[in-house]
């Protein structure tokens, strides 16, 4: 079993539990260069999304070292996804870390989303 299979296995049980609860899900995916956050409804429709690949975020991160692959960029994405969700009328979500450890960029994104007003 390689690293990706292990991560997907860890994330599977979380997704099953969130599907049973029938709540909106804030899922996080990270790569070496970017971090992505999607807010999906129980019927698997993407309601809100934000990432470091967006033009506005890239412009804000321009000139900084690391650009999209650091905790500061992740915090910015967490804040943006929370603002978009609140604008869409969504206040409570279930956090799906997709098998990634709750540490570093994933933790920074989650804490920034909480500070911006999302509850999970």
From TrEMBL:
Matching CDD domains: Ribosomal_L18_L5e (cd00432)
GO molecular function, one term: structural constituent of ribosome
One biological process term in Gene Ontology: translation
Keywords, in A-Z order: Ribonucleoprotein, Ribosomal protein, RNA-binding, rRNA-binding
Domain of life: Bacteria
GO CC aspect terms: cytosolic large ribosomal subunit
Transmembrane regions listed in the UniProt entry: none
UniProt keyword annotation of RNA-binding present: yes
InterPro entries the record matches: Ribosomal_L18 (IPR057268), Ribosomal_uL18_bac-type (IPR004389), Ribosomal_uL18_bac/plant/anim (IPR005484)
Entry function: This is one of the proteins that bind and probably mediate the attachment of the 5S RNA into the large ribosomal subunit, where it forms part of the central protuberance.
Quaternary structure and partners: Part of the 50S ribosomal subunit; part of the 5S rRNA/L5/L18/L25 subcomplex. Contacts the 5S and 23S rRNAs.
Family: Belongs to the universal ribosomal protein uL18 family.
Listed name of the protein: Large ribosomal subunit protein uL18
Organism: Duganella fentianensis
Organism ancestry: Bacteria, Pseudomonadati, Pseudomonadota, Betaproteobacteria, Burkholderiales
UniProt gene name: rplR
